[in-house]
Amino acid sequence: MMIMGNLPFKSDLIRELTKLAIDRGLQAGVVQLFGSLGSARLSYFDQIKRAYQIRGFDAPFEIVSGTGNISLKNELPFVHLHLAIADHDGKVFGGHALDGCRIYAVEYAIWPFSGPAPKRVHDHVTGLYLWERERYEPAAGTS
After folding, report:
1. pTM of the prediction?
2. Alpha carbons 141 and 143: distance in angstroms, whole number
3. What is any Pfam family matched here (predicted)?
């Protein structure tokens, strides 16, 4: 069952998607969206510093692509969303969507997953919160 709709004008993108997941009881799924923002806050993970670098954009932007997922982090629904946004000249910026992305007009589609929800846990190798690894046993005779 796909869930489709649009989000309220001037509201916060991540907060609205998180609220939607909580209100609908969604613990896992895929998110796709498009539309436009009045302002944006994006980040990227600096692998050398092992820290997120944040960039703020205080202008209107078109969402070229918005894709992500819903899983559990600390037992609560967590929206992990990446955006590609274009300015008035068509220059594209991208990254991890943060609180502070103000909606102008955004439409979304969510495909909920059935079964156990993936859980985000701290990965000591990367410093990121990633889905727990599924236990994988190679088939006999392979490695």
Report:
1. 0.90
2. 7
3. PCC
